[in-house]
Amino acid sequence: MTPSARLQTAVARGYTRVTASALGPRQSAVVRIGFSFTWLLFLVREWPNRRELYGPDGPWNWDMAAQLIDGNRAFTALMWSDSTVWFEIVYALAIVSSALLLVGWRTRTMSVLFMIGVLSLQNRSIFVGDGGDNLIHLMSMYLVLTRCGQVWSLDARRAARPADREWPPRDTTGVVLWAVTGTALLWTQLFTDARLFLTADGPLPGLGWGTVLWGLWLVQAGWWFVRRYAPGEPRTVLDALANVAHNGALLVIMAEVCLLYASAGWYKVQGSRWQDGTALYYPLHLDYFSPWPWLADIMASSGTLVMVLTYGTVIVQVAFPFTLLNRRAKNAMLVLLMMEHLGIAVMLGLPFFSLAVIAADSVFLPTNVLRWAEARLGRARDRLAARAVWLPGQRARESDEEAPAGTLVR
What distance in Å separates the CA atoms of residue 174 and residue 221, rounded to the nearest whole number? Predict the structure, then answer.
């Protein structure tokens, strides 16, 4: 085979692979579950403090936030009204959308509402948060483009039911949800100061949030129409486009994680405290980052341990992007990174930051490991279901054996 023929074959194979299926369905599902769980846990934990963090009772009041938004043109639904009721509605919708995205109910719609909730709260008070919040901020936009509900979701369970395989599909719930979201979007654009422009103040130059939100709404309508009335070639074309968007978004997420670790590692290399192996010692003695002072004192008391962990952190972060060329090295490095962030969660009291980074790292999890976990969890679920069915029958048989002759046991 000539070089040009081999090149054409490779290009055709790559084109088929990118357009024919959504790659990494389990990895994208883990990313969806991880980020929605992290954000949901944060919102629930901060429920008593929500008004001080993002609402009318905070030091960063509505007028100050409005002046900042006028300058940076960030998207936030909390600037559409200064009403306390509106703030409570937005916060509650952020919780609900996170929970529904977590279980995978109507993931296409919930991923958009999840993004709106994240951007609204974080852009309202940009001085509240850490690196984990920045990561959730970015991933909430990437998840909108992924087909993250193909496995481990209520959507996948519904699609697998024989009753939902009838053709053409009706999907009454989806139509109602589409109508409600469209009505809400229209009311927002007509009767609030939402600034949903078509070509300005959007996520990309020349692309406004009005175009993004209305575009996603119309795509959902087109998807339903094609499934119901044009299941042939139009459906194949839409599937291919959705697969390209999913695979592109997954590639961006991977690149984002690599960039995160590369930049963090190389910036650490330039610091004198990281060079002499003492950087870890100092945060262990900060009251703000010491939830367990006695444990921090034990770790800080060993100079060798501090030095090993300091150098190990730099080495792992710098080396991770290069280990993607070798599957075994990548898997080993991934375990070390997750252990590192679990240590940060416990030792420095940053659980949400660590959960967010681990959720992003999950995009690199091996498929075989996820299939193994899926099989184990499936067998455990089946045993529990069988036990729940078997126990009542067992009691009934025991009652039959213990009942005296001539007694009617119901």
Answer: 10
Concatenated DSSP letters of 100-132? HHHHTSSHHHHHHHHHHHHHHHHHHSTTS--HH
**99, two tokens:** 């929970």
Q: Which residue has the tokens 């209520």?
A: 154
Q: Please give the full DSSP string across 162-203, using - where no structure is assigned.
A: GGGG-SS---HHHHHHHHHHHHHHHHHHHHS-----SSSSSS
Residue 373 tokens read as 């976990």
Q: Given phi > 0 = left and psi -120 to 50 = alpha, else beta, which region is 58?
A: beta
Residues 341, 357: Cα–Cα separation, whole Å: 8
Report the candidate in 33, 213, 214, 199 with the shortest Cα–Cα distance to residue 115: 213
Each residue's pLDDT tens digit, 40-72 = 999 999 999 999 999 889 899 889 999 999 888
Single-letter amino acid, residue 283: P
Looking at every residue in the chain, the average pLDDT score rounds to: 89
Residue 94 burial by Cβ neighbours in a 10 Å radius (0-12, 13-18, 19+): buried
Q: How many helices (H) and strands (E) does the chain have?
A: 17, 0
Q: Which two tokens stand for residue 107?
A: 């993931």
Please say whether the beta carbons of 123 and 105 come within 8 A. no
pLDDT for 386 equals: 82
* Nearest of 325, 332, 337 to residue 361 by alpha carbon: 337
Name the nearest CA neighbour of 219 among 201, 237, 205, 232.
237
> Is residue 118 a contact partner of residue 140, using CB atoms and an 8 Å limit?
yes
User: Quick one: CA torsion of 94, 96, 100, 103, rounded to 10 degrees?
Assistant: 100
**51 neighbors 87 (Cβ within 8 angstroms):** yes
> Are 144 and 112 in contact, with CB atoms under 8 Å apart?
yes
Q: Are 50 and 90 in contact (CB under 8 A)?
A: no
129: left (phi over 0), alpha (psi -120 to 50) or beta: left
Q: Return the DSSP state at 265.
A: H
Asked whether the whole model's pTM tops 0.85, one would answer yes
Please provide residue 204's backbone torsions phi and psi, each rounded to the nearest 5 degrees: -130, 155
For residue 204, the cross-strand partners are 207
CB atoms within 10 A of CB 76: 22
What size, in residues, is the chain?
A: 410
Query: How many degrees, rounded to 5, is the angle at CA 11 between CA 7 and CA 17?
Result: 145
